[in-house]
Design goal:
The structure holds two protein chains of two kinds. By secondary structure, chain A is an alpha+beta fold. Helices cover 39% and strands 13% of the residues of chain A. Chain A has two domains: 15-54; 73-125, no CATH class. Chain A is built from five helices and four strands. Chain A starts with 14 loop residues before the first helix and ends with a strand. Chain B is mainly beta. Chain B has one domain (3-144): Acid Proteases (Cathepsin D, subunit A, domain 1), CATH 2.40.70.10. Chain B contains one helix and 13 strands, in the order ββββββαβββββββ. In chain B, strand 12 and strand 13 (140-144) form a beta hairpin. The two termini of chain B are 12 Å apart. In chain B, 46% of the residues are buried. The chains are: A alpha+beta, B mainly beta. At the A-B interface, helix 1, helix 3, strand 1, helix 4 and helix 5 of A face strand 3, helix 1, strand 7, strand 8 and strand 10 of B.
Chain lengths: 127, 145
């Protein structure tokens, strides 16, 4: 004899809670679908704007106004060959020149702001 | 740049690294050049198509005031264990050596106790909304809308 079907329990958790649960399980498309359902219903009384923002799919844009970058082989060579004394610090490099170094990223950026390099520097943490 | 059936497939190209000296794992990775908040500084970020979310270096996050953002707080299981932080939408610029740079936004997991020096670009919150391709023979990373 078949078992009687169990009546589905009404959902008592908030949309925010259910979306978070899906996000934490890396079920991003499921979270997007649930968000879309919530927004369509519109009668849940929850502020879902943060989830709308973080789950959005953004179409980026070309930006021809930004200067091109360039070959970073000298910076990489510097990191491979000369970075040992700077472990635990941030370094700012332009070519094989060390522009600034400090355990504080703010200090490194302050040096760069005070002495603006002629080209875009590479900022890297020496682990 | 790359074209597909008479149309642009990507807009820019940059040279990527397949390892960094201090990387904990010896296997090849893909580190690409980005800037955040459209600042005039370049950072390396590791492509991680196996991760839903990007992860931002906490010291870079602090520098930009992101640690104080009022975002959605979540817990994530990472290779460093369970981590708690917020998800936030941030601007990202892919710098180009050739072609045209690409500006977009990505959802980043920001966690104060994430180790410094490690920024990852994840799939669902960023890479899935753009086009990208690799030429491993030349270490070229192609990207675009």
């Amino acid at each position: 004899m078949g078992q009687p079907l169990r009546k589905a329990e009404p959902e008592t958790r908030s949309y925010r809670e259910r979306i978070r649960e899906l996000v934490e399980a890396d079920r991003v498309e499921g979270a997007r679908r649930l968000l879309a359902e919530a927004l369509e219903r519109g009668d849940h009384g929850e502020d879902l704007s943060r989830w709308e923002r973080v789950l959005a799919k953004t179409k980026g844009r070309r930006n021809p106004e930004v200067a091109l970058d360039f070959d970073r082989t000298p910076e990489i060579t510097w990191i491979r060959e000369k970075s040992d004394p700077y472990k635990g610090q941030w370094v700012a490099l332009l070519g094989d020149q060390l522009l600034a170094h400090s355990a504080s990223l703010d200090e490194v950026m302050a040096v760069l702001e005070a002495n603006k390099p002629p080209r875009r520097p590479m900022v890297h943490y020496i682990d | 740049m790359l074209r597909l059936e008479q149309e642009d497939f990507t807009c820019g190209r940059s040279r990527y690294l397949d390892f960094l000296k201090e990387a904990a794992e010896p296997t090849a990775k893909i580190f690409v050049k980005i800037s955040l908040e459209h600042t005039e500084s370049v950072f390396w970020a590791q492509i991680d198509t196996g991760s839903a979310w990007s992860v931002l270096d906490p010291l870079v996050a602090k520098r930009h005031g992101y640690l104080d953002l009022d975002g959605e707080r979540i817990g994530l299981d990472t290779r460093l264990g369970r981590k708690s932080g917020i998800l936030a939408r941030l601007p990202v610029r892919f710098l180009a050596d050739d072609g045209v740079p690409f500006d977009t936004e990505g959802t980043f997991f920001i966690c104060p106790d994430w180790p410094p020096g490690r920024t990852f670009l994840g799939y669902s919150g960023l890479l899935a909304s753009m086009r990208f391709a690799l030429d491993p023979q030349a270490n070229h990373f192609y990207f675009g809308p």
